[in-house]
Amino acid sequence: MNPQTLSGATRLHYIVGDPIAQVKSPAGVSQAFAERGHQAVCVPAHVAPQDLAAWARGVSLAQNVDGIIVTVPHKFACVPLCASLSERASFLGAVNTLRRNPDGTWHGDMFDGLGFVQAMRAQQCEPAGRKVLLVGAGGAGSAIAHALVMADVSELALHDPDVRRRDGLIARLASLGRGEVRVGNADPRGFDIVINASPIGMREGDPYPLDVDLLQPRMFCGCVITAPAITPFIAAARAKKCATLTGTDMFLQVRGLMVDFLLGA
Question: Of the listed 75, 131, 240, 241, which one is catalytic?
Fold first, then answer.
């Protein structure tokens, strides 16, 4: 957004997380608003978990705040802040985008999964009928798992060290009756699609999220991390001649879905 167009009529949208400095979304979302002819800007907010509810109450008092984008670690914690939820967000118990209801309360939805599947298809990888190993059952991971099941994968294996979170997600997804959902591990052999939806790889010195020595060229490998742009996992997959999808590829799709939602589409 051109700073010269910033005025008292500009509508505000926040992106909230802890930390927030690594997030690239504000510029891209603001640009997307401008491309749609909407006078709005997206600004970052660094809010600790213990302060989230109080921050949201304060932000809600500003009548020119129309939306909140949610990133790590607040995707589950923002659900109680919503007066209404999409069916998808209600099932997942997680949100990544909030927009105002007519009465000033918040309506939440979750687009990480839809965006990831759209990004896969943009890379000519159709998930239907494929076997998938997914690492990470947090906010992004649960959304991607749900989207993959709804896209009719034949098998989904989930790997997460938080056994309670992993098993709870498996049980909920299995209840949909749309293909096999089971416990996975760090071994990618036998899978067509291998995805890292965990934060592993964000920090220098992180281990690999799975055994990259066992990757095979026929596998499609994806990662949700946007910084670094090429994670060690994606670099290892490319060295194995695998087709890959980065967090940036995913976010380009998620951004469009979020902006459409925030503008009422």
Answer: 75
